[in-house]
Amino acid sequence: MAISQLSHSVCIDCSENLYTITDTSSGTVTAPISAETLTITDPNSNVSVINLYASGETISGGSFVVSESDLITPTQTSLLAATLNWTAANTTVYSFYLVYLNSGVPTSILVSFTSDANATDAEIGAGIVLLVTALTGTTGVSASYSSGASLSLSGTSFGITSLSNLTSLSESTALDQFTDGKYNIHWSLTDADAAYNSVTESYFLCNVECCVRGKMSAIDIDCDCTGDKATDAAIESMLMLQGIKAAAACGKDAKADKLLVGLQAICNNDCKSC
Known about the structure:
- This protein has 274 residues and is α+β, with helices and mostly antiparallel strands.
- 26% of the residues lie in helices and 35% in strands.
- Helix 2 (206-217) packs antiparallel against helix 3 and helix 3 (229-249) packs antiparallel against helix 4.
């Protein structure tokens, strides 16, 4: 049976700062898949497009894990040149996402090379250059390698992110944690039967939840005094957090956003370690 309804769920793991997108569709994909993208709009209206098909990945029939470093920030498409560095190791995956502008939208594509059982710098350098060169017509980014444990990337308005076993002198850095707020997650898939779309909106609140837990755990349960400022602040923050969740669940985004701004203001005063 072909897909009757493409759909997905989103589950966030605050402790690992990851979220998982899982296929919950009705029906099955009619092979082969010819296009698949994940478009994520963060609370600051930054748009990230992950080209799953081009990277040889898929959500269909399973799940896909997203980290903050997979999302694109405006500074990640500002490079004209970058240098990749590595340490040669046998049977090791060297990979990164190459970010380029596709009709003005930052889009990422995976570049992944696995060394053999007798790895050398030349093997790794030539292998990565070959992969980047195959994508130059799409990304506008070229690569060159001469010797040693580094190579050069060049282009116009590109970025690199999510490096594995690679470092870069010019890497654009991503945030360490997801920004709290509403995320629009659009999964698009085309197979031999038709083109499908699934869109969800989720509120991620890991940072303020950390703050609220900290305030609640600091309450002195042995204190029978009233009007304690710390206790009052903890209770107020908990009520605001629950208010955000209730408003978001009812589709009252403006109210949820307003409460979130207020709670963030409270947390920013004394929750520096969250």
